[in-house]
Amino acid sequence: MIQVDFEKGNGLVPAVVQDVHTGQVLMLAYMNEESLQKTIETKLATYWSRSRNELWVKGATSSHYQHVKEILIDCDNDTLLLKVEQDGAACHTGKYSCFYRTIEGEEIL
Amino acid sequence: MIQVDFEKGNGLVPAVVQDVHTGQVLMLAYMNEESLQKTIETKLATYWSRSRNELWVKGATSSHYQHVKEILIDCDNDTLLLKVEQDGAACHTGKYSCFYRTIEGEEIL
Question: What is the C-alpha to C-alpha distance for residues A12 and A51, in angstroms, rounded to an integer?
Fold first, then answer.
């Protein structure tokens, strides 16, 4: 079993969330050990809300659940990649992805 | 101009790096304001190395540069998404992506 390195981030690791079908990156959230275990058990993406300081079942209030199909871990064990089927929209704004804006300077890139 | 929220992460924001052509997620790294400005200026992905505590031009030693084609920002301004053309491999192990392992439990997902 691969040990997830929760230490580096004070108990949290970032989780990149990607649409399993299109490859679109939907959002980034944070997981502690409990939320990762819950995600594996329920197959519904569950995060740690840094603003509310509580376990956060994505979709619990919005019904925009994320059905987790695969979880990968990076080479140094401190970042997760979730491939999900997204119900509705990932973003609280109603957009499908939280990444819907290019930053200033994109026109010169 | 969109203000990147560097405060929440003590001066750093996570940057998800994605292959611009295939959509594959390659790695996650961290940026401070200086590394983001350098990335925009040079169009070569430049991060802040948390282990070495210094600016890190990806590819400076390995020649595995990342040519940045687009930078997006998420809804709450604290995470970046870089779409890049990757020279060689993103991972220091020689793998193309740092996410080459599924975690324990993947067989039940």
Answer: 13
Map tokens 């983001």 to a residue: B36
- Residue A60's SS3 state is coil
E-only strand ranges, chain B: 13-19, 25-31, 46-49, 54-57, 66-73, 80-86, 101-102
What mean pLDDT comes out for the span A69-82?
Answer: 97
Residue B2: the pLDDT is 80
Judge whether A68 and A36 are in contact, CB under 8 Å.
Answer: no
Residues of A in contact with B106 (CB under 8 A): 70-71
User: Residues of chain B with pLDDT > 70: what percent?
Assistant: 94
d(CA A23, CA B52): 32
Instruction: Give the model confidence (pLDDT) of B27-61 as tens digits.
Output: 999 999 999 999 999 999 999 999 999 999 999 99
Whole-angstrom distance, CA of residue B7 vs CA of residue A88: 31
Say whether A73 and B102 touch across the interface (CB within 8 A). yes
Q: Which residues of B touch A14 (CB under 8 A)?
A: 14, 28
Locate the chain B residue with the closest alpha carbon to A109: B69
Amino acid making up residue A97: S
Model pLDDT, residue B109: 46
